[in-house]
Structure formats: C-alpha cells, structure tokens
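Its record is retained below.
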Amino acid sequence: MNIRIGASLPQQHSTYAELRAGWMMAEELGADVLYNWDHFYPLRGDPDGLHFEAMTLLAAMAEVTERIEFGSLVLCNSYRNPNLVADATRTIDHISGGRHILGIGSGWFEKDYMEYGYEFGTAGSRLRDLDANLPIIKDRLAKLNPPPLRQIPILIGGGGEKVTLRIVAEHADIWNGIGDPETMKHKNQVLDDWCAQVGRDPTEIERSVVLMNLEQHDLVDDYLAAGITHFIGRAGTPPSDWGPVKELLAWRDAANA
C-alpha cells in the first residue's frame, strides 16, 4: 500500500507571488501532489476577490516546481474544447518533465458559467458532456506530436453512483471524492461494482479524498480502512498554517515505512 498526500492550494484571495511561494512550500515539505482548482471567482470570502485562471497557473506550477506531481481539482469539462484540453495538458506535461495529472469533472458553479457565457444546462447534461469528451481527450493525446512524456494520469472528481462512478471506472486512474469514511467506503464498493461491469481492474484506480476540515484529518486511519490511499489536505499561501498538511505527511511517512 502506497499512501500519498496531496496539498490543495486554491487560487483565491492570493497574489501570484503568494501562490508561487505556496507551491514551493508544498514541494519543500515533501507533499506528493499539488492541486489548484478551476473557478473564475472565489468560493469563500469576497466573491469578487483576487483570483487566477487554472490552466495558465498549471503551466507556471510546472516550471516553478521540480519533483512534485500536480494538477487541478478539478478542471471543469464545460469551459474548454476537449481537444484543446488534451493539447494544453500534453504541453504542461512536457514543461514539467512528466509530472502533470489531468484532473477533470463535469462542473457545478453556476456563477462561473453565467459570467463567462457558458451554457449551464443541468447536472445530467453536464455529465453527458463529460462522458462524451473524455474519449476525445484520450484520442487527441494519442495523436499529438510530440506525444506526452508518460501516460498522463486522469483524475475524475465526483461521487454520483449512477453515472459519475461508471465514467470513473471507464476512464480514470485516480478517483476523487468527498465524504466521511463510511460514505467513501460505500462509494468505493460502488466503483468496484462498476469496474466489474465495464471490465476494469479496480486496483488500477487510486482512491482519493479531500479532507474538508480538521475533524476529518483525525479520521485518516478510518479512511485508510475504507480503501482511501490518497489524502488531500487544504493548504494556503504562506505564511498560513501548514500544520495539518505537515501532520498528514508525518503520518504518511510512518505508515509507508
């Protein structure tokens, strides 16, 4: 069992210099993966506060860091043409020397859609679009010259049991969910069932969870028992408190020893 720790560093209410310092902090501390998110406005605090676009920052993360893997948690499928997503992902992969993870989901934040002129649709239509676009992304990745430096891992976020987890079973290398240990245990089993239906080895899919608060940080052993091996803690731009992420890293090192 290989436990990995991710650090989530959303690009809200921060200058670029602060974000850059945060990325360097994550790498210095020894986190395995670094994440931003894909929104156009902050989700907390001043709704019109400082904010930056996700994929541009991913390219910067590729150049600033040297070891850590990184991606978005998660790109919104609705915001970009799937062929462009593949090409940009491949380019970021080369900038980073093969450390990029393509995190993607169906989208949900209505303000982003309305302000930037995207059709919001319904939860069902957004999932259908994701389902249709993932094969296009994978096909374009296979055609690009030069090709990616590795088979770029695809992370899919979401927990819907009827559609999302079926899409995960078909396409993902990493699944990301949110919930307490019992919820994640149940959804892990649903994902395993979908893998059986689509002919996928369930052990090929890494299971990850976003730890939303300090109470969930205290439940990492329960999450591990539920089948989760990739734990994502919320970080911040320096000089914010990285204590919870440091504790996760110490726990990882002891567990992986």
